[in-house]
UniProtKB/TrEMBL annotation:
<keyword id="KW-0808">Transferase</keyword>
<comment type="similarity">
    <text>Belongs to the GST superfamily.</text>
</comment>
<dbReference type="GO" id="GO:0016740">
    <property type="term" value="F:transferase activity"/>
</dbReference>
<feature type="domain" description="GST N-terminal">
    <location>
        <begin position="7"/>
        <end position="88"/>
    </location>
</feature>
<dbReference type="InterPro" id="IPR004045">
    <property type="entry name" value="Glutathione_S-Trfase_N"/>
</dbReference>
<protein>
    <recommendedName>
        <fullName>glutathione transferase</fullName>
        <ecNumber>2.5.1.18</ecNumber>
    </recommendedName>
</protein>
<dbReference type="Pfam" id="PF02798">
    <property type="entry name" value="GST_N"/>
</dbReference>
<dbReference type="InterPro" id="IPR040079">
    <property type="entry name" value="Glutathione_S-Trfase"/>
</dbReference>
<dbReference type="InterPro" id="IPR036249">
    <property type="entry name" value="Thioredoxin-like_sf"/>
</dbReference>
Amino acid sequence: MASNPPKPIRIWLTPPGPDSWKVIFLLDELGLNYEVKSFSFEDVKEKPFIDVNPNGRVPAIEDLNTDLTLWESGAILQYLAEAYDGTAHRA
């Protein structure tokens, strides 16, 4: 089972995009603490989100436990599995 970090992982998303929900599902499956920063799609190219992801695309996460900011759902899923799932196998 996952090792739950002391600080919540912040996920930025604009509903109802499917890629954001993939990340939410994995966070739930791993039992991790997280907080959702939901905002309007019209604001993806505006501050404060472009300070998190200059590309202005969702989802993005900020892991306050490791000071890592990451975007692109595939990269986020891989990171979460490797960092927090004790059963994940590394290549």
